[in-house]
């Protein structure tokens, strides 16, 4: 059965993250402004080969190597098309597109505008499609999820209070908003700009 594993975290505006750790003394100011949020826990990251094996396990007539070839070609062409200022829509999944990361503060005068000094990077974005039976928009995806507290999966009930090096704490929408693309949400005060 599918499940989303989570841990409980505590954070406040301007603070990247605090895990709920009874051993840590908490600043009274943090105590007053902090709140608890759910944070998704990643069990593993599938490689391209792992994903190809999974696809073929669903009765695909294609071999793992053929699936890998298609996925690699898709990745290459996706990047190529986005670098041509095109969005790529995958029906039933969503749309991939690029945004420009700008230098903080931008420029005040149009005469000072120089894309080569203003742009600090390009960001790959994803907007889930919400108009299909298999919708993965935030609210529809939530209806399909079964949640499991990471602390219930081990004998050590404090495991939810420990950071693992592969967890991405800014990847979720902890404010309960509808994450329909953009920067993917983030923790309050984490500075996740779009």
Write up this protein.
By secondary structure, the chain is an alpha+beta fold. The protein has one domain: HU Protein, Chain A (Irregular), CATH 4.10.520. A hairpin with a 3-residue loop joins strand 4 and strand 5. It is flat, with a radius of gyration of 20 Å. The two termini are 34 Å apart.
Element layout with pairings:
Blueprint lengths: L3 E8 L6 E2 L8 H6 L1 E6 L7 H9 L7 H19 L5 E3 L3 E9 L12 H4 E10 L9 H7 L2 E3 L45
Parallel strand pairs: 1-7
Antiparallel strand pairs: 1-2, 1-3, 4-5, 5-6
Categorize the overall geometry.
flat
CATH architecture: Irregular
Mean pLDDT: 75
Could you state the CATH homologous superfamily? IHF-like DNA-binding proteins
Low-confidence stretches: 157-194
| Biggest sheet descriptor | 4 strands, mixed
The number of helical runs is: 5
CATH topology: HU Protein, Chain A
List the domain count as a whole number: 1
